[in-house]
Specification:
Length: 537
């Protein structure tokens, strides 16, 4: 065939138009894909940041919630002790009532007064000064007090009312408790607690808090009750809701960060840079590829020459394009070897994965095979028991020596020396059981025994810890109750040894949460044996 310059030029122009059109289409696709990828990565980054912020907010708010429950319930628990005293002494004098009530006032300065109403008529008040007008008040004749008093009498259960405004000034939460003697219903005992003092003692008024909080649930109605503290807006929109358990009913806390929720993830700028860089690189490669191909076609007038040039071009571009791309992958792998937090490691993995995907796109253009991507494998945490046990032993040894009791720790069996287990659960369970044993043992010894045992299905393995003491022991009727919040064996135990009664409740929740088991054998005055089995592996 004769060479025709006009036809050759026309073909080159047509080819140029088509190829530049393809480059334009590819550029549009790349821009759309890059923007989509950017949105996905930024959304995931923001979601993770918000989740971390929510966890921090819940941690701070729950600490206040625990203190609020403890302050409220502990105050009212003291009043129940007065009710128990009245049950035994239903005909007590005002002097006897005042003497008992004064000890409660010393323990809880937030109380306004304490009143007792046999047959629903107030006949005892402490302190008397400032509360004389309350004597003789008949609940059945008082329109605002009648329904609450009847609710206590008819249900036989404590009733928490308010917050409400007091006649003598201030806002208070009122707890009313039924009292029974040998003949049946005796009356009720009630006490108001100043709301402001209650909130202050629980830390809710601390100006250093990084969160803002509101309370609702007047009269223990939970989400159905009125807001009595804070901004009502905290119960709408993006706010976290936390229940507060009372004797009867609940309150509800609405909480969010003072500075508001994050609106942009911490790695947004890095994501933008990477996506823009990757998109520009693809477009640039396409432009360079198109220019190169056009020049190659232009430099050849015959089809055979163009074909040979194209082969050389493919070989050259394969090397030239992969060189900088492999550099990106190499730098990302070096980054991955550095000490990174989980978020940075995830982003580095994203860079590597995206670069490998781009490499696969180039491979398609150059007619090469695609690259395979790696998968993330979770790494279980191995714990050396000796490293967990030694600090606990060191702390308890001092107290044991001070009390003159023996603290015996059996050697860790070789098969249990290193286990896959949650170190936080292990440490918390060990500390609570051992410190409890030391606290409630006056003489004798506290012993810890360890054993690795197989589960009933022969496929699971457990770390068994047995804590034995020669302490005060626990009555059989109270052995289940000691695993509940704020419960000890009896009131004398609280007075003699102190504590809040939360240690064994924490152990029970942690062990149950990881699928373990905790059991108790005890006899009053002869010590206790706690057995815990934690799943490992």
């Amino acid at each position: 065939m004769d060479y025709n310059p006009s036809q050759s030029k026309s073909k080159l122009l047509t080819r140029s138009f088509v190829q530049w059109g393809a480059v334009l289409v590819l550029a549009v696709i790349v821009i759309f894909a890059a923007n989509t990828l950017r949105g996905i990565l930024r959304s995931a980054d923001l979601e993770k940041a918000v989740k971390l912020q929510e966890e921090a907010v819940l941690l701070e708010a729950n600490a206040i919630r625990y203190r609020l429950e403890a302050e409220t319930l502990s105050s009212f628990y003291l009043i129940t002790s007065l009710g128990a005293y009245i049950s035994v002494n239903p005909d007590l004098s005002q002097e006897e009532f005042s003497r008992f009530a004064s000890t409660i006032f010393e323990a809880k300065p937030g109380l306004v007064n304490i009143a007792a109403a046999p047959d629903l008529v107030i006949r005892y008040v402490y302190p008397m000064k400032g509360n004389e007008a309350a004597l003789g008040l008949d609940y059945m004749k008082h329109p605002t007090q009648k329904l609450a008093a009847l609710a206590v009498r008819d249900s036989g259960q404590p009733v928490i009312a308010g917050p409400l405004n007091l006649v003598q000034g201030g806002v208070a939460v009122i707890g009313r408790f039924p009292v029974y003697d040998e003949s049946g219903f005796w009356g009720i005992v009630s006490t108001p607690i100043y709301l402001n003092q209650l909130l202050k003692d629980s830390g809710l008024l601390d100006e250093q808090l990084s969160i803002e909080m509101a309370l609702r649930g007047k009269d223990g109605k939970g989400a159905e009750g009125d807001v009595f503290f804070g901004d009502p807006e905290l119960f709408s929109g993006h706010s976290l809701l936390i229940p507060v358990q009372l004797f009867s009913g609940t309150w509800q806390i609405g909480v969010r960060p003072k500075q508001g929720w994050v609106t942009e993830g911490p790695n947004a700028s890095l994501i933008d840079f990477f996506v823009i860089f990757a998109g520009c690189l693809v477009v640039l490669i396409s432009v360079l590829l198109n220019i190169y191909v056009l020049r190659l076609h232009k430099s050849r007038e015959v089809e055979a020459s163009v074909s040979r040039a194209k082969s050389r071009f493919l070989a050259t571009m394969s090397h030239e394009i992969r060189t900088p791309l492999n550099g990106i992958v190499g730098v990302a792998h070096l980054l991955e070897m550095e000490e990174l937090d989980e978020e940075q490691r995830d982003l580095t993995s994203t860079i590597i994965s995206s670069a490998e995907a781009l490499n696969g796109l180039l491979s398609d253009i150059l007619n090469l095979s695609k690259l395979e991507h790696g998968t993330f494998v979770a790494r279980p945490e191995q714990v050396v028991l000796q490293e967990v046990f030694e600090p606990v032993h060191g702390l308890l040894k001092v107290e044991a020596e001070r009390k003159g009791i023996a603290l015996n720790w059996t050697e860790i069996p070789p098969e249990c020396s290193t286990l896959v287990v949650d170190p936080l659960v292990l440490r918390q369970v060990l500390w609570n059981l051992m410190s409890n044993a030391v606290k409630f043992t006056k003489e004798g010894e506290v012993r810890l025994e360890l054993e690795c045992v197989q589960g009933g299905d022969r496929k699971s393995e457990f770390l068994r810890m047995v804590v034995t003491d020669t302490g005060v022991g626990i009555d059989k009727s109270r052995q289940k109750a000691v695993f509940e919040d704020f419960v000890q064996e009896d009131d004398s135990t609280t007075r003699e040894f102190g504590g809040t009664g939360l240690g064994l409740a924490i152990v029970k929740r942690l062990v149950d949460g990881v699928g373990g088991n905790v059991s108790l054998r005890s006899e009053k005055g002869k010590g206790s044996v706690f057995t815990v089995e934690l799943p490992v592996g």
